[in-house]
């Protein structure tokens, strides 16, 4: 199984494509520039089967409608943020003057519990990792050694907690209990910035001192 990082939109939010050898793929966090993403998928002859959202902030959902309509595929979101997709006040697009209000259509599937999720031939574990936002999730592909962490954990940093529903202590607990327990060689595919590893962040992330 392969993955590809694609920064999209004004904030260069990392969208991830996770693909199987048969060219089917999952799309994580299509944050903007939907047509650019569609052209890339076409060029690589990939066949998306679902969109998974690590959370519903505007910079992670900006291309949801365009991509979903192009491929007629379902969207997954955690239950605590299912109403955020269509509400610019909740998804944050209303809070920034330079951002057009974003109203994505409702998700097709609501993630209610942690555990193993199967979509087509893809299988991964879903962890609820709130703190950056109430419904943030991380998706762990154990066999392939990577976790898509959304905006929970970054290289040398952690997600901001000053937006609605953010909670600094809760975020640190999520990182400690759900992410830092993964094998140290696990690649962390963050919502912004470079790829890192669990071990790197345990050793050098200044926000995690004391863990």
Topology:
Layout lengths: L1 E7 L4 E7 L4 E5 L5 H10 L3 E6 L5 H4 L2 H8 L3 E4 L9 H4 L17 E3 L3 E5 L2 E7 L8 E5 L4 E5 L2 E2 L2 E2 L9 H12 L7 E4 L5 E2 H7 L7
Parallel strand pairs: 3-4, 4-5, 5-6, 10-13
Antiparallel strand pairs: 1-2, 2-3, 7-8, 8-9, 9-10, 11-12, 13-14
Helix pairs in contact: 1-3
Structural account:
With 211 residues, the chain is of the alpha/beta class. 21% of the residues lie in helices and 30% in strands. The strands form 3 sheets. It has a 6-stranded mixed sheet with strand order 1-2-3-4-5-6. The chain has a 6-stranded mixed sheet with strand order 7-8-9-10-13-14. β2 (13-19) and β3 form a beta hairpin. α1 runs parallel beside α3 (64-71). The radius of gyration is 16 Å and the shape is globular. The model has no long low-confidence stretch (mean pLDDT 96). It comes from Neobacillus bataviensis LMG 21833. InterPro entries: MBL_Glyoxalase_II (IPR051453), Metallo-B-lactamas (IPR001279), RibonucZ/Hydroxyglut_hydro (IPR036866). Residues 12-192 form the Metallo-beta-lactamase domain.
N-C termini distance: 32 Å
- Fold-level CATH name: Metallo-beta-lactamase, Chain A
Oligomer: single chain
Helix and strand element order:
EEEHEHHEHEEEEEEEHEEH
Query: Going across the major beta sheet, what is the strand order?
Result: 1-2-3-4-5-6
Keywords for this structure?
single chain; 211 residues; alpha/beta; Metallo-beta-lactamase, Chain A; six-stranded mixed β-sheet; 30% strand; globular; RibonucZ/Hydroxyglut_hydro; zinc; Metallo-B-lactamas; hydrolase activity; MBL_Glyoxalase_II
């Amino acid at each position: 199984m392969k993955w590809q990082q694609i920064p999209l939109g004004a904030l260069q939010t990392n969208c991830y494509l996770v693909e199987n050898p048969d060219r089917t793929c999952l799309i994580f966090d299509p944050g903007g520039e939907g047509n650019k993403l569609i052209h890339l998928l076409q060029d690589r002859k990939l066949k998306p089967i679902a969109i998974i959202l690590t959370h519903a902030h505007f910079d992670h959902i900006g291309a949801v409608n365009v991509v979903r309509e192009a491929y007629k595929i379902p969207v997954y979101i955690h239950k605590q943020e299912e109403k955020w997709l269509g509400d610019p006040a909740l998804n944050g697009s209303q809070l920034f003057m330079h951002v057009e209000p974003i109203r994505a259509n409702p998700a097709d599937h609501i993630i209610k519990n942690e555990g193993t999720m199967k979509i087509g031939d893809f299988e991964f574990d879903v962890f609820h990792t709130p703190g950056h936002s109430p419904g943030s999730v991380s998706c762990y592909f154990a066999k392939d050694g990577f976790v898509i962490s959304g905006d929970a954990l970054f290289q040398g940093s952690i997600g901001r907690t000053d937006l609605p529903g953010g909670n600094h202590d809760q975020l640190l607990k999520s990182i400690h209990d759900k992410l830092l327990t993964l094998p140290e060689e696990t690649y962390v595919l963050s919502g912004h910035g470079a790829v890192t590893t669990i071990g790197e962040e345990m050793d050098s992330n200044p926000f995690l001192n004391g863990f």
